[in-house]
Design a protein that fits this description.
Number of strands: 8
Number of helices: 2
Structural class: alpha/beta
Oligomer: single chain
Order of helices and strands: EHEEEEHEEE
Distance between the termini: 31 Å
Strand content: 35-45%
CATH class of the largest domain: Alpha Beta
CATH topology of the largest domain: Signal recognition particle alu RNA binding heterodimer, srp9/1
Length: 142
């Protein structure tokens, strides 16, 4: 029996969380709560427990002030595979990947790569701090 029943949160650390939260707000439409005063900005995503739909489950995405300087990318060259060049990658589920990529392109943000699989559509971009993000549109059965 698993002791884990989901992801409670994803936390990205930044030397300037207000700037990075603004990027996610302006480019991806996230609606953050929190403030510079607390050094954290967050959005909660709600879902239902498949074993008990009366239970609401939450996943929090937060951008928090880093306690030490964050490493920067040392190259402009993009890795060719999905794994990128960092020890983690945030996967953000989206409703319409093509529309989002068109909107991002109009804002000067090009996708690093885009791939389609039978279970979903994927693209990778970088945020304002250079973190590689995976954008994911699931393919729904039926």
């Amino acid at each position: 029996m698993s002791h884990v029943n989901g992801v409670g949160g994803a936390f990205v650390f930044s030397e300037d969380p207000a700037r990075l939260a603004g990027w996610y707000r302006d480019k991806l439409g996230l609606a953050f709560e929190g403030s510079e005063e607390f050094g954290a900005f967050y959005q909660v995503f709600w879902g239902l427990d498949p074993d008990n739909p009366a239970n609401r489950l939450d996943t929090t995405f937060a951008i928090m002030r880093a306690r030490k300087p964050m490493p920067s990318r040392d190259t402009e060259e993009e890795p060719d595979d999905m794994y990128g060049d960092q020890p983690f990658m945030l996967n953000l589920r989206v409703n319409d990947l093509d529309a989002l990529l068109d909107d991002l392109k109009q804002q000067g943000i090009e996708a690093i790569k885009r791939e389609d699989e039978e279970y979903g559509h994927f693209a990778w971009i970088r945020d304002a701090d250079g973190n590689r993000l995976e954008l994911y549109q699931p393919v729904h059965a039926g």
